[in-house]
# Entry
Amino acid sequence: MNITIIGTGYVGLVTGVCFAELGHAVTCLDINQEKIDALKEGECVIFEENLEGLLKNNIANGRLSFTAEYESAIPKADLVFICVQTPSGEYGKANLSYLYAAVRACAQHLNGYTVLINKSTAPVGTVTAIKELLREIAPEKNCDVASNPEFLAEGVAINDFLEPDRVIVGVDTPRAESALREAYAPLISKGYPFLVTIPQSAELMKYASNSFLAMKLSFINEIADFCELVGADVEEVAYGMGLDKRIGTRYLKASIGFGGSCFGKDVRALVHRGEEEGYEFKMVKALIAVNTVRYLVVMNKLEKHLGRLKGKTIAVLGLAYKAGTDDVRDAQSLRIIFELLDHCARVRATDPEATEQFKKDFARADEVAYFDTALEAAQGADATLILTEWDEYRQLDLVKLKSAMTGALIVDGRNILNRKTSEAAGFTYEGIGR
Ligand code: UDX
# Structure
């Protein structure tokens, strides 16, 4: 099939490359000419495991191409997937301006029967709104509109696409359903679940899934804080809970709080969408409240051992919101480093992938000193903070780390170190919930 993808961010690029890998002729469209030029050369513009290899292969075999022109990418398409950003707007409302701009830009170029599929995370009712918009601006066009939410987690996005837990499509015509079945046929034939629903259900599934996972995280973080009060170990508690198949062990890792481009934005958008209907999402609001003050756990641990932080030197290991990505959107590092600077602490930061992105995204980036390795960052530090669970931090030489520092405190915000080993190396160890 001829597939056009609008938007070459994480979702759009992964989707385009993977549909090409499944055998379709894919054109990826983006209004950013610079990005398109780089992609045409096989340069992967984002850091994502295994993406560059697939990108290069599919360009070479002629199934994947890139353009900045709607007039060349849209008319030939059987399916157009919209994968543009839907950032948090005022009061948490999803900002759909990029999405509607994409619909408007492609409307006039639609040629023959086409299915326009929204893959961008957008509130329930968006498919209906797109249909109304098309009726208004391009009533003569023969197209259906569908929803096909993405469930790609950064770092494992290729795997999530090619070996999905499920593919969900929200459609309201049999013709749109069969077009999407054809697009996903290679995955359906391998037995991956393909669920067909009405558009509203598909749209809500995305928000409900992300909110549920975020709720699990805030829940275990709340349990973690209580563990510290009563002498329990959250790692043991979570494991024991997770063995109950109704609960499951995943997304029960206590931490400094969740971040990333989706969870925070999507939970806020769900609350806002509820308010539009006069509905209050009490549990979703509670999970947001827990996550919003998560940085205090770290600040309290530092102050407990160091007293006032003014003039203290803190080594921060990890800026990305999780391991395996260079993304710092909504990362806890942003909030925690902001607080450290506000307390007049000196910050020495390092990350194997995300430093450059952090410098772009953090308003006070020039007040932070950056280093290539954990050992360099730790030189003269009163405390070391681990904010991202990178493998190289799991394998730190703790004796060397300790001797590089002036102080002895290590705050393990991801519970990746062993307390006994850390203490044997001379550290005062603070984990989360243990
Ligand atoms: C998430 C969803 O998983 C994905 O389905 C959706 O499409 C986009 O949002 P992503 O943001 O890439 O994906 O990351 P994910 O791996 O889900 O982690 C989100 C945050 O939760 C990270 O900050 C991570 O560190 C944190 N987390 C995750 C924990 O603190 N503990 C866990 O057990 C799991």
Summary: The longest strand covers residues 2-6. Residues 150-154, 210, 213, 217, 251-253, 255, 258-260, 262-263, 321-322 surround uridine-5'-diphosphate-xylopyranose (CB under 6 Å). Residues 199-230 form the longest helix (32 residues).
